[in-house]
Every structure is written in C-alpha cells, then in structure tokens.
Amino acid sequence: MSSRLPKVAWIGLGIMGSPMSENLIKAGYDVTGHTLEQDKLDRLAAAGGTAAGSIAEAVRDADVVITMVPASPQVEAVAYGPDGILENARSGALLIDMSSITPQTSVDLAKAAAAKGIRVLDAPVSGGEAGAVEAVLSIMVGGEQADFDEAKPVFEALGRTIVLCGPHGSGQTVKAANQLIVAVNIQACAEAVVFLEKSGVDLKAALDVLNGGLAGSTVLTRKKDNFLNRDFKPGFRIDLHHKDMGIVTDAARNVGAALPVGAVVAQLVASLRTQGDGDLDHSALLRAVERLSGAQV
C-alpha cells in the first residue's frame, strides 16, 4: 500500500470550490482542477494546482474526483455523457460530490457510477465561504463506511465536523435540513433587526447581548456584520438558497413531513429573487423584511 497522498481532480472552482481546493493543495495534495472560467483556473495554478482544459483531462489519472457545482443539473452535466466523469475516470476511483443537490440525484449517481467501478460519496457542506476559507466546514456524508474512511483525510483538510449520516443520499438529506434551519434562523434575525431599529435601540449592542444568550447562533455570529453594515456581498447567494429550499420542501412532501414555517421562508426567499436580489448573500432576507415594513430598499 503506497503511503503517498491520492491524486485529486477538482471540478467546479466557485466561491466554495476555489478556497476548498486550495486547502487541499496546502495539505500537500496534488490537485488538478477544471472549471468554466479561465480566471478561476489561473487562481488554482497560482495556488500550486494544475489547470485542466477539460473534465476528461482533469479526472484521467485521479484517485479521488471532487465535484463542487451549483445544483443537480450541473452535477449531471459533469458526471454523465462522453466527456463526463464516469466515462473518463479510472475504475476504482472515488467520486466525492460536495455540491448541494437532491438526495435522489445522489442515489442515481451512485448507481450509475457503480456500473463503471467508481465509488461515490455525497458530501455536501455547511459553513459558507468563510467556513471554506478557514477549513472549518461541517461535512455531512452519505455512502459506504469503507469509502468514508478512505476519504476522511481529504475531508479533514476541508472541514472540522465530518459525519457519515447513512447510505447514499443521506448527506444531501441532512444538508437540506441544514438549509431549512439556516433560512428560518436568518429570517428570524432579520425580523429582529428591523424591530430593534424601528424601536430606536442600539443595534450592535442588542445583537451582541442576544448572541450571548439562547437566541445566539452560528448564523448570528457569521451574519451580524452583514446586518449591521447592510453588506450583502455573497458568501452564499439567495439564488442557491432558493434552490435548496426547493429541495427541502419537495423532499419533505415526499416523506410526509410538514414544514409550515419553512414553506413561508421558502416563499420569502423566492420573492427576493423576483425582486432582483438573487445574487446577494442570504442575509439579504433583511431587505425583504425592510420592504414589508415600509422601507424603500
């Protein structure tokens, strides 16, 4: 058994993928990446990785292939077809999809990959851009125990809380629950911010004391400055949270779970998109509350 680190192919170098792939490079991994934007490929090369001109080129010699793309259609686009991962990765490779997609897409991918001798883990993450940069992501994994054990060192270079949640698709189900909790939490914080400001309270002082008690949360810690400064530069875009709220409401309906508050927040996220705020950070739910409260935003 060789003690060398596995060769990694990384597909998708966006807000999350770029810093995550760079953390693997820092941990000593040989990373070859492919994405659609040349500047992202240049960034990978500057960090010590290798830029590939196609998926086939990126995955050809890889032991581990990691995908980090926006949604189910993109996962299917990079995985299937003559130019995709399954046709071009070697038999025995481990495919780790870290995108947030529907649980069913993960189950289907694992089945299709097995026919090619490729093992699959679904391993979506929580922690946003800051968590990716700091390598403190929470990683929820679905798949086989042996594959999870093999991937553990890779995950440890990317995150802090790493848990195998069950069979294929389980990671995505837990991620969907995560996105439900985060959206409802941001919405509650946004409502509190508008209430506090309209009441004339010192917002910074109020958020500091709230965050020290039972109302405190990772969401409030991470998003406090966004609220205070109305800084909605995307760490996690409304467009993507809209996609995730669709995943969780659909999956919940399929299993017979009621999400009354989640359904309302899903509609509020959807309304932000229609108002042109889809490219903003999900903390921009504050803008929706401000509009409902009579502010011209």
List keywords for this structure.
single chain; 297 residues; alpha/beta; six-stranded parallel β-sheet; three-stranded mixed β-sheet; 14 helices
Layout of helices and strands, plus pairs?
Elements (H helix, E strand, L loop, with lengths): L7 E4 L5 H10 L4 E4 L3 H9 L3 E2 L3 H5 L4 E4 L4 H8 L5 H4 L5 E4 L5 H12 L4 E4 L2 E2 L1 H7 L2 E6 L2 H12 L2 E8 L3 H29 L4 H9 L6 H12 L8 H18 L4 H15 L10 H8 L5
Parallel strand pairs: 1-2, 1-4, 2-3, 4-5, 5-6, 8-9
Antiparallel strand pairs: 7-8
Helix pairs in contact: 9-11, 9-12, 9-13, 9-14, 10-11, 12-13
Protein name: 2-hydroxy-3-oxopropionate reductase
GO molecular function, one term: NAD binding
GO biological process, one term: glyoxylate metabolic process
Task: Give a structural overview.
By secondary structure, this protein is of the alpha/beta class. 53% of the residues lie in helices and 13% in strands. It is built from 14 helices and nine strands. It has helices at 17-26, 38-46, 55-59, 72-79, 85-88, 103-114, 128-134, 145-156, 170-198, 203-211, 218-229, 238-255, 260-274, 285-292; strands at 8-11, 31-34, 50-51, 64-67, 94-97, 119-122, 125-126, 137-142, 159-166. The chain has a six-stranded parallel sheet with strand order 3-2-1-4-5-6, with helices on both faces. Strands 7-8-9 form a three-stranded mixed sheet. Strand 2, helix 2 and strand 3 (50-51) form a beta-alpha-beta unit. The longest helix has 29 residues, at 170-198. The N and C termini lie far apart (60 Å). The relative contact order is 0.10.
